[in-house]
TrEMBL record:
GO molecular function: acyltransferase activity, transferring groups other than amino-acyl groups
Gene3D superfamilies: alpha/beta hydrolase
Stated name of the protein: Homoserine O-acetyltransferase
The organism of origin for this protein: Methanobrevibacter millerae
Family matches, as InterPro entries: AB_hydrolase_fold, HAT_MetX-like
Domain of life assignment: Archaea
């Protein structure tokens, strides 16, 4: 066993178990619109035990897709799932978490310095970005499954629709296959707030840009809690939680955020859902304000042949780790055929 240090993190590698954080450089990445960027970063975390098929290719990789304000490290929020004897037992699976295209840590408008001149990207671009990385890093890897939370589910749906032979299962929690209704209105409205800032097109940061991002996060807070919990809170409690949530805006670059929003506006896979071949586990919160079980999950039964739909009564906000203990039995039951 070798133990090394990377940016203060311990990395343990052996023939059997891997726990690694690193960055990979893709020499050339081409977007759907034909634009090309060179020497782009991919930030990733690997955890677990690789298994190999008869051709010597990894065959037990599960890719984790983080949400709207996450990155590769969001994997740690689900440690009760990804651990010895958890649903994703690290003896049985090799878990890969990648910071998505457009997010700091990987290739994005802020860290490339391109800002408003960054290529416009789609969710297929985000999938292709990760797909190219896996090919370069692992060769002919046979991906076993994909897990997506929130906006990460958008990527999982996209991958399963565009490349249906790449995976055997997908698990998606509180997500959707299109931007529509309330979500579309919110995304379009937030774009309007950003575009109305006179300094947005210039690429110059000043106090007005900071205030714009604060306003955006105040709007986003409206779907942070479940409907039931939000109604039960006093206004003073809401103020406290809102202030904590808005603090995240200080770390979000306005151009990174705007490009994410643009990708959301164009997202709609309704006509491609029948392409999905993977077994699907779809988990929805009964009380979620942003994703509706009725409109975002139930219709999937008619599109996806092997689809298991579970409605869960999440009591607290969607990012609280303790809520997900409710679905461990569901995961275990679903995954029993994929060990």
């Amino acid at each position: 066993m070798n133990i090394i240090f990377f940016n203060g993190d311990i990395i343990i590698t052996s023939n059997d178990f891997i726990h690694e954080y690193d960055k990979h450089v893709i020499e050339r990445f081409e977007f759907e619109n034909g634009e090309v960027l060179e020497n782009v970063n991919v930030e990733y975390l690997i955890k677990g035990t690789p298994k190999y098929d008869q051709s010597g290719n990894i065959c037990n990789m599960v890719v984790f897709f983080h949400g709207y304000d996450g990155n590769f490290y969001s994997l740690s929020d689900y440690s009760q799932f990804i651990s010895k004897d958890g649903p994703f037992d690290t003896d049985d699976y090799l878990i890969l978490s990648i910071t998505s295209l457009g997010f700091p840590g990987s290739c994005c408008p802020s860290e490339t310095g391109l800002k408003q001149n960054f290529p416009k990207y789609t969710f297929k671009d985000k999938v292709n970005f990760k797909r190219q990385f896996i090919k370069e890093k692992f060769g002919n890897c046979n991906m076993l499954g994909a897990v997506g939370i929130g906006m990460g589910g958008y990527e999982v749906y996209t991958w399963a629709c565009e490349y249906p032979d790449d995976m055997k299962f997908i698990i998606i929690v509180n997500s959707s296959y299109k931007s529509a209704g309330y979500r579309y209105v919110m995304v379009k409205g937030i774009n309007g707030v950003i575009e109305n800032n006179p300094n947005f097109e210039s690429g110059n940061y000043d106090e007005s840009v900071t205030k714009t991002m604060i306003s955006v996060y105040e709007i986003l807070f409206s779907f942070y809690f479940s409907h039931k919990i939000l109604q039960e809170m006093s206004n003073d409690e809401i103020d406290v939680y809102m202030d904590q949530f808005v603090e995240k805006s200080f770390n979000m670059d306005i151009y990174d955020f705007k490009y994410q929003n643009d990708a959301l506006l164009d997202f709609n896979l309704e006509d491609k859902l029948k392409n999905i071949k993977a077994n699907a586990l779809i988990i929805s919160s009964k009380e979620d304000l942003y994703f509706s079980a009725k409109y975002d999950s139930v219709p999937l039964k008619k599109y996806i042949e092997n689809c298991q739909l579970e409605m869960v009564d999440f009591k607290r906000n969607k990012y609280d780790e303790s809520d997900y203990t409710k679905v461990i039995d569901i995961y275990n039951s679903f995954l029993k055929d994929f060990k």
